[in-house]
Amino acid sequence: MELSGILSIIGFAFLGVSCGGGPNVQVVDTSGNPIQEATIVPMTRSYNKPASQTDTRGEARIYQDFPKIEWLTVTKRGYHSAHVSFDQPKPMTVTLRPATTE
Description:
By secondary structure, the protein is of the alpha+beta class. It has one helix at about 5-20, and strands at about 25-30, 40-45, 50-55, 60, 70-75, 80-85, 90-95.
């Protein structure tokens, strides 16, 4: 097989892995209930990528592309934000703790 054919196969395989599949992040509260409309900001070593919002099941799809996503910052009004590594098995769950009101 020619080198260009091998590179095409590798490229299509990467595209399928990076773009396919369902949600790979779920955001829940400390009781395990999904948190709708939480904001997820993917972060690389150089900059933040566009934010995503969770759906009614607290789920979102974060696409891994270049540069590599290192962390996620997850926020929702009424909860403490979370800063977590994106380098963990997927699907991953992020738990937000309620903010205390005094």
